Amino acid sequence: MPKSIILKNNGGPEVLELQDVEVGTPGPDEIKVTNHAIGLNYIDTYHRSGLYPIKLPSGIGLEAAGKIDEVGSNVTEFNKGDNVAYASVPLGAYSQQRVIPSKIAVKIPESISYEQAATLMTKGLTTNYLLTKTYNLKAGETVLFHAAAGGVGQIFAQWANSLGAKVIGTVGSDEKIKIAKENGYSHVINYSKTDFSKEVLDFTNNEGVPAVFDGVGKETFLGSLACLKVRGMMISFGNASGPLDPVNVPKHIQPKGLYLTRPSIGQYFTNRKELQTGADQIFEKVKFGKIKINIFKKYKLADAKQAHEDLEARRLKGPVILIP
Ligand SMILES: NC(=O)c1ccc[n+]([C@@H]2O[C@H](COP(=O)([O-])OP(=O)(O)OC[C@H]3O[C@@H](n4cnc5c(N)ncnc54)[C@H](OP(=O)(O)O)[C@@H]3O)[C@@H](O)[C@H]2O)c1
């Protein structure tokens, strides 16, 4: 019988339990997929801990790549045997096999492996919308990205460089500085040792940057606002250090006329066509060598608990996948 990680309760990594599951047959608009690689994302820890509430018991995980075993009677865009990837609710990607709505899947080209696809979907789609839709990053600009050596962080600077832009990155330890530089950051700050906003202002001749991409949240939010230039855009897209405190608009937003947004993937890729287009743009970047993916570590699905422990302890230095 296929195995899946099931959450019965919210809590620490110990609540991740591997169980046998009945998968069943797909409904009319669904497909049954055998997963070959599963993406690990920081958001998985929010679902596990309860920071983002979910109905329990529940599967966990948004992202995987695999092969279609069976298609529902209404499904016309996929066939049995197609290679697909997905990065969306319903939760349950931490599974060997499962049934998903066909509308969340995209086809993956032959040039992209299951492991690459499972690494690229969430992190690549996030990067795609952040720097082409949320903020239209232009050649010659320099922006700031936090957690530069992380999963999204490694793709972000490579993509920004391919547009002719530069990125200042922050990292939590000296050993991550080299990794961030190898991934295209032009200046890297260890924010556990240095006041990053002061360093960004120094680096930009006190002007500040036009946009900050902040997935760290609580610990970096105010510093990020401080190093934005007049009318700059604060893009708060995650909370690895904890959720944000309420924002004091007159004190923190008004003086420089800043823009503030808190976006998610689902708001930018609202149907299957948009998803496939967004994913194809990522696959093209990989095909033409604009983005290189170095998977930092592969864990067995049964070791998801260890993967979560390492992610939250900031031990991971790049994207990680689970092998079912
Ligand atoms: N809104 C969206 O559409 C969307 C989509 C995907 C991801 N995200 C968000 O983007 C961020 C990055 O996601 P990811 O999956 O690629 O994760 P990741 O960057 O690989 O891991 C999170 C990183 O955050 C940094 N961090 C800073 N303070 C931390 C703390 N107190 N505890 C743990 N980590 C801390 C760590 O890097 P250092 O040690 O270098 O500080 C850590 O490696 C997350 O916040 C995630 O929720 C948002």
Explain this structure to me?
This protein has about 325 residues and is of the alpha/beta class. The chain has 2 domains: about 5-120 and about 270-324, Quinone Oxidoreductase, Chain A, domain 1; about 140-260, Rossmann fold (3-Layer(aba) Sandwich). It is about 30% helix and about 25% strand. The protein is built from 10 helices and 16 strands. It has helices spanning about 40-50, 115-135, 150-160, 175-180, 195-205, 220-225, 250-255, 265-270, 270-285, 305-310; strands at about 5, 15-20, 30-40, 60, 65-70, 85, 95-100, 105, 140-145, 165-170, 185-190, 210-215, 230-235, 260, 295-300, 320-324. Strands 3, 5, 6, 7, 8, 15 and 16 form a 7-stranded mixed sheet that branches. α10 links the parallel β15 and β16 (about 320-324). α2 (about 115-135) packs across α3 (about 150-160). The longest helix has 21 residues, at about 115-135. The radius of gyration is 20 Å and the shape is globular. The protein starts with a strand and ends with a strand. The structure holds NADP nicotinamide-adenine-dinucleotide phosphate. NADP nicotinamide-adenine-dinucleotide phosphate binds near residues 153 and 171.
